[in-house]
Amino acid sequence: MALHTKTTLLTPQTAERNWLHVDATDQVLGRLATRIATYLMGKHKATYTPHVDTGDFVVVTNCSKLRITGHKLEQREHQRFSEYPSGLKRIPWAKVYRERPERLLQIAVKRMLPKNGMGNRLLSKLKLYRGADHPHQAQHPVSVVN
What we know:
- By secondary structure, the protein is α/β, with parallel strands linked by helices.
- The protein has a domain at 19-69 and 100-133: CATH 3.90.1180.10.
- The protein contains 5 helices and 6 strands, in the order E-H-E-H-E-E-H-H-H-E-E.
């Protein structure tokens, strides 16, 4: 006699999305990016469904206080290509971190998300801010313990 269990799959209408707040002060870039990607995809929930957006909104503050280990600031470069001949721009991480530190975290998280339309939708739920204030107080984001 076999037991018949039913698996329930979430739909976009039944998925519950919360707001989470992450403080990036003294957090290592790659380790923080993996945690944020997990929250955005919803893999931290028991109701995770791969083909449905079940993740939460994530608000990250203090991106300017991120910790980048090793010599990455001096050695690595961010590349952009405009699709035109000689349109490749190489910008050192030190310059990107100095001018827009939240951009490094956004790129790291984006590369950890699915490479399809759902990955783009998931990335739109990530809110990054250089300082400690953010305009999402009305959503009552829950602080995630670092």
